[in-house]
Specification:
With about 350 residues, the chain is α/β, with parallel strands linked by helices. Helix content is about 65%, strand content about 5%.
């Protein structure tokens, strides 16, 4: 009994090669995600983590030097004259812990800067206080909002906004490939507005990640999302089916891992710490922290990072426009040349027929 027609072996082999070639992309994503996430997060260790010891006497100096020596590069310990200076450093993110020695030792932290850094500092100085035979009191001078007790909600907001942005690149670049580039760019801007509104809704009324400054958060979310979308739409002209891998490399693998949302650069390998200074995810996370929790200190630098990535998006779209114009021009010249050849062939045939008629053939 016949099982029905079967595809030709050559056709089946071709289809198999086609599938295998497309499997390269998810396998590269697997390798890239493993290298990025495990490389950045699997073994966080402090290096040059700035902490202050409050006091100007010999006791404070000796304690600071002892911690510096025992840390072997893990800590960068300084002494400050009084508690107010230490609080100022914490609120300007110039240090991540301030220890006040004495009969009732106190540790001051700013958990809004980084909950994981605050935890590391607290562990270190709990041991210091224990050696002195006293319990450690902890004061948080910059706590997070009630809706974000770990301070990591901003990072997960970054994840949501990023996914909404780079996933839209595939739709605009793929389904919208037949549209003019200016329309695709307009779709990118419009989509970034919607993504940022959704992000602001998550941050405010839905989950209460922030209790003030929601308008500024929305503006940074829009600037961030617009940069991602414009870069992705521009890259699609050049990368085609590799665009998904390209945007994931830029805005997931390198972006999330260097954002400082889970571990600040002082707890990460140097490569990811260096990216933190200019990558757009770090610009968003640190910009929101600065705006919401630290009175706008250093906000201008974070906004500049986001603005430069937006400009990079405009450059990407502009480059794509030039490339597509050249392709259209080349295609038009090719079509014109083919038409000219057909016309010349037709003219030769007509001339031959006229000659035949003239000689009476």
């Amino acid at each position: 009994m016949s099982a029905g027609p079967r595809p030709a072996s050559g056709s089946a082999a071709g289809e198999l090669r086609h599938v295998l070639s497309h499997l390269v992309t998810p396998l590269l994503m697997c390798i890239g995600m493993g290298l990025a996430y495990l490389g950045a997060f699997h073994a966080p260790e402090p290096h040059d983590l700035r902490v202050d010891v409050v006091g100007s006497g010999a006791r404070a100096q000796v304690l600071a030097q002892t911690l510096q020596d025992k840390g072997d590069g893990a800590l960068s310990v300084r002494t400050v004259a009084d508690r107010d200076i230490a609080v100022t450093h914490l609120r300007k993110q110039q240090s991540y812990g301030a220890y006040v020695p004495g009969g009732s030792p106190e540790l001051m932290v700013a958990s809004a800067s980084s909950d994981t850094s605050a935890t590391v500092v607290q562990k270190i100085f709990t041991d210091v206080a224990a050696e002195q035979g006293a319990p450690l009191g902890v004061t948080d001078v910059a706590p997070t909002a009630d809706g974000d007790p770990t301070g990591q909600g901003i990072f997960f907001l970054l994840v949501a906004v990023s996914i909404g942005s780079y996933a839209s690149v595939a739709v605009i670049g793929g389904a919208g490939a037949v549209l003019a580039l200016r329309i695709r760019a307009a779709l990118a801007i419009g989509t970034s507005f919607l993504v940022s509104v959704i992000g602001a809704a998550f941050a405010g009324p839905v989950f209460g990640l922030v209790d003030h400054g929601l308008g500024g958060l929305w503006a940074m979310a829009w600037l961030y999302s617009a940069g991602v979308l414009l870069i992705g739409v521009g890259l699609h002209t050049f990368l085609k089916r590799w665009t998904t891998f390209g945007v994931m490399l830029l805005f997931v693998m390198l972006n999330f891992t260097s954002s400082g949302g889970i571990f600040r650069p002082e707890l990460q390998p140097g490569f990811f710490g260096s990216l933190h200074s200019f990558w757009n995810g770090a610009g968003f996370v640190e910009g929101v922290r600065s705006h919401v929790y630290f009175g706008g200190h250093a906000l201008g630098g974070h906004l500049l990072v986001l603005a430069l990535w937006f400009v990079a998006g405009l450059v990407s779209v502009g480059s794509a426009g030039l490339a597509e114009a050249r392709r259209r021009h080349g295609a038009a010249e090719k079509a014109s040349g083919a038409a000219a050849v057909r016309s010349a062939d037709g003219a030769d045939e007509e001339a031959e027929e006229e000659m035949e008629e003239a000689v009476g053939v």
